[in-house]
Specification:
With 177 residues, the chain is α/β, with parallel strands linked by helices. The protein has 5 helices and 6 strands; from the N terminus they run αβββαβββααα.
Length: 177
Amino acid sequence: MAFGYGVPPRGYADLAFLQHMISVLNQDGKLGIVLLKDASIKGASIAFNHSKFTARVNPDVADRMKAIDNALEGFAREKAIQKITPRINKWSQTTGLTPTGFQFRKLTKRWGSCTNANEIIINYDAIKLPFTLIDYIIVHELGHIKHKDHSKDFYREVAKHIPDWKELDEKLCGMKL
């Protein structure tokens, strides 16, 4: 069963949840949503094509909202890896600061982290942000390879590559994780 944006079948709460989650990804309001019942899949899946999200949900799944949420998280993680990895490589080359590795995780209290072993961890929800903020997160975490604190030297290092870091930091602090 398929239906367009804003026209859920009676008693079907999943579309409202899907619309809410996708609205975070859809800042300009131009995306459409299609929800399909599909017994051939295990839980739920999300696809994006030509300004339209398609959610496929097995109608026999007891908790469809959780299945959609899990599918959206998987979709965000895949897109983060696909879109952010080249930016990490670019900024590492530009700054001369090379992490020992990097990974994407669901972080609840921060956008990124740099371990004592110089591994960069990026919150995969960062994919929902504009690339200017993603770049700031990357350079911020790369800066911790050289300076493990938030000292003046650390911020001077960040400012070499992101001169408007203060503005971007304020925007980022105002965003919900």
